[in-house]
Structure formats: C-alpha cells, structure tokens
C-alpha cells in the first residue's frame, strides 16, 4: 500500500523505472485515465444540417446530453468527413444563444417579453383565424377560389420533408394559403 | 503501441478549415478572437494557445487560364499547420514540472492539470507552436488527440479533413506515402514540390510532415529547426571545458612555477 | 460553372479531388479565382452574366466540329424532329422568337411546336411560371411529330441549333465574356473530348447560374451541351445542381412553394383549371409518357390530404384546394406586403432580413404586417427588424409606430428531432433524434400539428364552405413523450402511401390508382416506407459504389436518372468502362448497377402499337420517359416562357449593351418589378460603373442564423468584405483591409476591402469591366456583425421560376465607411444623383 502510494509519486517512479521523466512515469492520474469522452455513449445516426451534400453524422449522447458530433465513416456520401460548418454542429446545438423561451413583441413596443408556449400557440391560432376570416375568398365569378393571399409563409429548405409536408398540407390544403415560399425560390 | 504521425499534403488542401474547427470542437478550445486579419482568407493568424490547427493561405497571383492544379503557375496555396511533435522536443526538455510528457504514440502532450504556466516550453519550441493562454497562464498546444488515440480513433482534424489532405497513421508508413506522393507529383510535372521532414537537425525528426509547393518557409516551416536545449548542452559543455581549462591552467601555473 | 463547389460543398468535392488525382480534368469558369479554382486544372474568369455566350460557344464548337456523340444524339434527343414552318429564330427577329406579344409582354408559343404536333385543346394564359412538371399546362401532343434521322432537313432541330448558335464564336466570347480566344479554345477542346462511348463529363452548377434574369436558360444551355456530348443518364455525366440547404431539394419535392403540389404537380390555376377536375386533368395529364399517370398521383394526394372526404362525387375534394390567381412567390407577395396587403407571415428557418433579395426593402415591408411568427434556433434579424435593423437607426422605421406583433418561437435542431432531409442528389436520409430540444424549443412538426389541431377545433364548430378543406383535412397523428411530439414516421408513411381497403403501405408509385382506392402524399417518394418496419430513408447499409442500401433516392431508389441512356439503343452498354444498366437477353429484363429508370421488362426492340398510351406508348429505345415523346430536348417546344432555345441577353443591369442582339437588351420575359423602392441602374450607367456579384464562403452558412452565433465559425470569417482587384483598389483609392462603401440603385453598405488578383478586371473589346465580389452572410445580430450584401439587390423575377438576379448587378465603390444614421440615406441619394467624377488615376 505504501509502496503503491510511493509509486504514484513521479520522482520515485522515475527512479524505480529508470526513466528520464518524460514518459508514462510523469503522467498524472488524469492523463492516465484520459479517454475519448464519447466512449460508451449512445449514438444517433444523423445527417449534417447545413448544405445539401448530406454528410453522415454520428451524434454521441449520454443521459440526454450531447457529447460530440462527428462524421459517419460508413456514409457512402461523405466517408466520415465534415467541412468546418459540419464540424461545428456540436456548437450549433449547444451554444449559449439558443432560444429556449417564446419571445413576444407587442405592437409599438420597444422590447421583447417572454411568454409561455401554450399561450403563444393560442395567440397565434387566434391571429391566423382572424386574418383568415377577414381575407378569405370562397368564390370569384361564381367559381371556386377558396383562397387567402393575406397570410404568407416562408421557409422549408432547412426543415425535414415531414415538416414541409405538414406545412403545405395545413397551410394550403387546409387554410387556403397560397403565398407559400422557401429558399428554393431564391 | 505504434508511433503515429500526421502527413499534411497541401496539394490536396481546399482551405476549408474543417481541421481548425474539428480540433476546437473536439478539444473544446475557445475561439481566438474575431479579428479581420485578412491574410488572404486567414483570420486566425498562426498556431497558438487556442489554435492547434491553422490553415495558412498564400496568394501568389492568379493567372487566367490556369487553375491551382496547373504545374506552371502556383497561384493560391493552403496548408494546415500543426505541432510537429518533435522526437527531441524543446518544450518537453524545458518543462521543469513534468507537465509535458511523451505518449506511447510518440506524441508530445501537455498535461493541463500539471502545467503551472512557467512558460519555459514556449520559448523552447523551435516552431513557435506552444503558447500560454492569457486567462490562466497555462501553456496549450495540439494534444495529438491523445484521448482519441487511446481509443484507436484518429485525431479530430484528420477525421474531418474532406480531401484527405491531412493523413494520420504509423510514422514510417506515412513517410513512405509522403515520398511516393512527391514522386507522383514530380512525374506530373510539379517541379516545385517539397517534402518537409527535417531529420538532420537536433529535433531528431518530427511526427508531422508536410508536402508543399514552393519554399516550406512560406508556411512557417523553418529550414533547419533546432532544439534550443541543444545550445544549452553546448553552452554547458563549453562552460565545462572553459572551467577545466582554467583549472588546468592554474594547476600548470603552479606546477610550472615549481619547475622553474 | 456557376458554383464554387470546393467552398460551398467541400465534402462533396472530395470526389472531384479524387477524380482529379486519377486523371480527370477539372475546369472552373468563374469571375473569381476561388478555392475551387485553386483545385482546378484550368480557371477561366468571365464577366458575370455572360454565361450563355460561353455555353453557346461550346455548343457552337461541338456542332461546328461535329464533336457530338452522333448515335446518342440521333436516338435519344429530339435533334431529328422538325419544327413548325412558322417558327422564327432570334436570328430572324433581332433577338426575339416568333410569337412575341409586346403588349402582354409574353410569348404565344404555338409556333415553337414540333411540326405535326397537334395543339391540345386548352387555354393557357402563361401567366404563372413555375416549378411544376409542365410549368402551367401541356400544350401539345409531343409524341406526334415529323422527323429526319439524317439530320439534314433545314427545319430539323439539329440544323435549327446550328443556325441559332452560329454567331456564338470564340471571337464573341472574347468580346462579351472577356475570355481570350485561345483560353476558350483550350477549355473547349478539353471539355468536348469527354464524350462518346468511353468517356463522360459532368457539369456542376449552383445559384451562380440560377440567380440570373435568364437563369433557366443558362441551365438549358448546359443541357444542350451535355446532350450533344451524350453525357446524360450515364455514369460520370450529368448536370448536377449543388443545392445550398440540407433539404432544399426536399422542400421542392414536397414543396413549401405556391405553384406546385407534392411531386411536381401544378397547383390549380384559377383562370384555366377552374373548379373542374376533368379540366385540370385535361390540362396537365399527357397521353403518352410517364405523366399519363398524373391522375393517379393527384387523386392519391387528395386521399392523403382529405381521407374519406375526398370522394369521386366531389372530384376528390378538388375544390378544397385554393386556386392560384397570380404571383404568390416570395418576390410577389413581398411586394404585396410592402403595399400593406399581407396581414400575417410565418418564417421558419429562413432569414429574409439578411438573405432575401433587396433585404432592405424586405425588412421595411415587414413593418406593414399585423403579425409575424418567426421560428428559429436563435434570434435572427428577421425577428427583430423592429428593434435594431439599420432602418431603425436611419429613422426609416420607428418602433413606436410599428404595429406588428411578433412571436419568436425557439426551434428544435437536427439532433433534437427525427425526420428526413432530401439532399442534393435526391437522396432521402433520415436523421434520428438524439436528445430533447432545450426549454420550449420544438420541431416544426410539433408546431404545425398543434396549430392545426387548434384551428381544426374551431373549424369543427363552423361548417361554412370556407372551412370545408380544414374540416376534411386528416390530422390524426399519434403523439409521444412529455412534449406530445407527433410520431414523425406516421407522416412519412402517409407520404409513402397506402392501399385504403386494407391500410397496407404501398411498395411504390406503380401501385397508385386514380379511383380513390389509394393514398399517397408524394408519389415520387413512394417506396420510402414500404412496410411498417422498413423506413428505407433510415437504412445505413451501403452495398455498392452507388450507395444502394444507404437512404432512399427518389424515384424508386434510382441513383442516376434516365439511366436507360447508359446503354445503346439495342440495350448493350456503350462501353465496358461506362456500363451502368443493360438489357439481359436471357432474363429478358434490364439489369445492372442501378435501379433501371425504365420499365424493367420492356425490351430494347419494343415498338408501341398504334394508340398506345402512357409508358406503353414509348418504344424500348426511348430513355426519357417523363417526356411525351421519350426523347430529351435540345429544343423545348413548350413549357418555357422565354424561348425554346437559350439566347444571350444581358443582365437587368449591365455595363454594356447586348452585343448579340442590340435590339433586345434583356430577357424579354424577365420582370423587373420596378417601383420607387426597387429602382434600377441604366445599362450602362455612369453612376454605377462596376459589376457586383454575390456568393457564399465555406466558413458561413447563407444568411448566418446557423453560423454567426458559432464562435468557431465567426473567428474564421469575422467581417463582411468585398473582393476587388488591385487595379480597382487603386482606382477607388483603397488599400487591402481598408473600408469601402458600396452603393447600388437600391442600397448602401460598407465592407472591408480584400484586394486580390483573384478578382481580375475583365477586358471586352477595349473596355475594362471591374467586378466586385460580395459574400452575403452578415447582418445586425450575432457574434459578428456587418452590413448585408443583399441590401444591394433588386427584387426581380426570372420569367420561368421567378428567381431574382443576384449574380450580376451594377454598383459603385467609394473609399471609406458609409455614413451613420439618416445621413446614410442622404449618401445613397447623392450616389444616385451625381455621375461619378472621373478620377485622374493612371492605370
């Protein structure tokens, strides 16, 4: 026991092992126990969210926390590689400026305020309903129009197919919104 | 455990800086300041406490009709610099606290929990790689992703590099790869290609080789890097010789006088 | 051309580098020597906006020297088809094709038809452009035509092409693009040698081609070139659109766009499609070719949207869908917004305050909204236009007078939700959820589902006709977890489609029916989820070079479209080296390395019986099955708004008059949307002597929402800069790293100067044209801030797809920073008023 303790002392170890003090004998406990931090973590097979090349990503996580994101070597598209943006995905997901609460700006206000998610959803549903009521046209010249041009949507190229599907289905198929556009137009 | 190395082939580098970012993300290195240095497309300047991979951009003038892969015109070069993990490492030899160690992979690793920030290593690096972080004074540089290597993983920079400009592997195998690549390029008509792998200096060989077009000096790669402690040894040696000569002289003076 | 692939798609570019190392020649044509040029064998700078001259000259080179892949051209393109006798080329009419109506500012396209093709009995106002399969309606029965397989008839398309491109000579290239003739010829020889049975070449492009007032025609020119060289449908060939966002392809396939429905079916047009499903089908369904299945796909979509409420008796809910009445595109509705005609706007994962065309105007227009909902991971500029936009600083907007209510919702990122992206190669890849989103951040799936739930609840109590669609909408997705997140696989299954009787998932779009017995949310994606436990987009077991086993490439997991063209007409591969799919005579089926883009048992010698319809009407040697005649189109008889062939027109703002057709300066169909808040420079214009062009950098992402908050990216490119030549820097009086102010007829920005020989002046016929390069990533939020280059753009529309012109405009450059506050507006006014005094600087 005393011997073990003594051997932890680099100087003693160096004398005992005859080393020059620049190798393992000088390693601290932390260094000796150093391991890749994603060892033993869960892995989600993912895809880079930036450009459209579609590089495979491995998202390492443990206990609900992200640990790291790196390229998926099995991907026939990217062979495990990532560009600087793809390499920065971990910071994208975890940086301090991520929004976590709904912010609301009242008419003529000069500041944001925070509001609850459910309340915000109710308010947005109200706004949509009222605008639609005011502007919806069922017919023109006796022909079906079923349209509002007063509510518009923008965005989709950063979203999933399922999300785009639901947006188009609800906004156009359900609400009659025709002003729908995304990054593909620009 | 085999000794490992980097081979950075700038003729394959697209200057994307994925290596810089992948390194920082994995090693959780902070950003280095938002300065518009505009050294061509480079704004991080050089290797330092918070930049362990650094891509240098060298503009030599673009000529219509010639791309960067034309052997006749070398227009815009990129090369990713990194710690050389010298066989005789100045930083390691200078470190008085045992904070810097040689790993089983041949890399040179600064133990952040041991480093006390004395800074001796900083001045002893022949490549200007090691630097102290102003916040706490400790010295930082490329860890050769020691944590990843222990798991059999490649360093983060080599893993990310889109075009295999950064290769990682067993050192002698990589040396062969490097020589072969230079031969290939020469056959393709590139007569300005150089392999940077100084072996005949006091650093005693490095663990990060580079293939560049033109003079390696352009990429902060000194022609003859020397370990400052070599001079220290020489200094002690000459001091010793001088001291011995003085002793001998004094002795001779006395004995001589008795001879008279 | 039109792309800097190494910079904007670095990981995709690994394949280019690998090919280069194996001997492929990489040619980069771009105004700027970029990181792509640095990896290329040749870099050829040209004047921004002169692409069609350059490509036209390559076409001319091929035709003049008979470098075309003749067997491919004769059999697989429409080269041999004759055009109508009354068709007139731009060569005959000073830059216009036959059919131009000056009052309506549009073409009547009847004379462009194939000789002998009957016109369909449909009206077509031609007013809406679009992404749809037929851009507003089929005009002809293109399977009926006259042809001359010897290509000698002067009215055959091969000869029409020859005449049309006769003046696109190396000399014209030198004079118009600023490319010396010898440099052009060297490139032409290299590129055109990659043709024939044993060789192919690919062309990669991006928004450097699309964002022009004649962007569609630039890509058409590339198509003609590649078809002449036999480089479509073959390994190593193609024209590859390198798209900029993870799922910009997906958001076009399953569109959040106004003019199409999922799978490139057109939205019904008010004037033409009326409220009658039969008229709509008559308009868009073809008699021959794959689009004969149009009704199956449409009815299946209606069943996916509206379930049982879509029945034969009510035209499958056709009137639940709104009608398109005009230009509801981004550009179109933003003009409406500026005029106060839009009440509410949703913005999800996009940042028009920085990335929109004429972003200054777009920010000001948002102040006219009653309400705005922004969903993003950070507080993007769009959400806070009322708080800290330049317009607030300049006194153009006063927060105390802006009535807009703004809701900024935190959005989940890609690691916090499951779902699939469709990447640039049409590859669907599912990304798995790893962790929960932080705080109140949620996916768009969550947001839309729960918003829809609320609205449907209201509609349920209100059965007026206007709510018929909303009430009919199927919306019963299961939810899971503490956040009640909809099960995303259920949505993907709805997209895949089912047979309704037994609820079973269909195996692919061949199973879909027009009688209402199947549902399918997007026919081209059908097969992505063929069994309850088989999400093909989630598969991660690649088994071959083409990546089969990894994800799902629509349609039907084909990796190369039109791959029937990779074999000879008789079904044998063109060569051993370039074989992809071929006819197996023993098994009597198509086989090979890819999923055949062809009916698998249709033999090469199949000839259709008279009056055959659909796919059966196409012979076994007709690879281009989406076209009614089964051939690829060197010449487009219908569907384009600005001509059947690409023609060089100058950008809406140009430093020169059109050297090809002096009488026709710009694309006749392009829409300038000109008004006091969207003005243009003259062409040329002493006030704005330089050409400006925008682009992206590797280190940032588009409008910055995903990069300007990331320290590890910001440090790499911290400031907005412009790239100018040493010659221009001297003329302006600025040094490298100094400040300059850049002004157009729309806006004013300041940037740091990057003085470099990589942005050389262009010499045309004795005139020197300086070009200014502008990366557009910055804005007024984030860790690094800067002016937005897009403030300089005009809101304009290309005629076919309504995209703006951002790659070639006119600007002026002054030394020093711009003025602060309202004085900046004064500075802009002055720049617009005064002609630039000529500087007495020796060049």
Please characterize this protein's 3D structure.
The complex is a heterotrimer of chains A (186), B (260) and C (843). Chain A is α+β, with helices and mostly antiparallel strands and 186 residues long. Chain A has 4 domains: 2-32, no CATH class; 42-94, ADC-like domains (N-terminal domain of TfIIb, Single Sheet); 101-135, no CATH class; 136-186, no CATH class. Chain A has helices spanning 2-8, 10-17, 29-32, 84-87, 89-94, 117-135, 161-174, and strands at 42-47, 56-62, 65-71, 102-105, 113-115, 137-140, 143-154, 177-181. In chain A, helix 7 links the parallel strand 7 and strand 8 (177-181). Chain A is elongated and about 95 Å long. The N and C termini of chain A lie far apart (72 Å). Chain B has helices spanning 18-27, 90-94, 120-124, 146-150, 156-160, 171-187, 228-259, and strands at 4-9, 53-59, 76-82, 100-102, 108-110, 131-132, 139-140, 166-170, 193-196, 208-213. With 260 residues, chain B is α+β, with helices and mostly antiparallel strands. Chain B is globular and about 75 Å long. In chain B, the strands form 4 sheets. In chain B, strands 8-1-10-9 form a 4-stranded mixed β-sheet. In chain B, strands 2-3 form a two-stranded antiparallel ribbon. Chain B is built from 7 helices and 10 strands. Chain B has 2 domains: 4-226, Alpha-Beta Plaits; 227-260. Chain C has 5 domains: 5-115 and 155-241, Dimethylsulfoxide Reductase, domain 2; 252-325 and 487-538, no CATH class; 330-421 and 433-460, Rossmann fold (3-Layer(aba) Sandwich), CATH 3.40.50; 563-623, no CATH class; 690-833, Barwin-like endoglucanases (Beta Barrel). Chain C is 23% helix and 13% strand. Chain C is built from 24 helices and 29 strands. In chain C, the strands form 11 sheets. Chain C has a 6-stranded mixed β-sheet with strand order 23-25-24-29-22-28. Chain C has a 3-stranded parallel β-sheet with strand order 9-10-11, with no helix packed on it. In chain C, strand 12 (419-422) and strand 13 form a beta hairpin. Chain C is globular, with a radius of gyration of 27 Å. Chain C starts with a helix and ends in a 10-residue tail after the last helix. Chains in contact: A-B, A-C, B-C. The interface between A and C is large, with 118 and 168 residues.
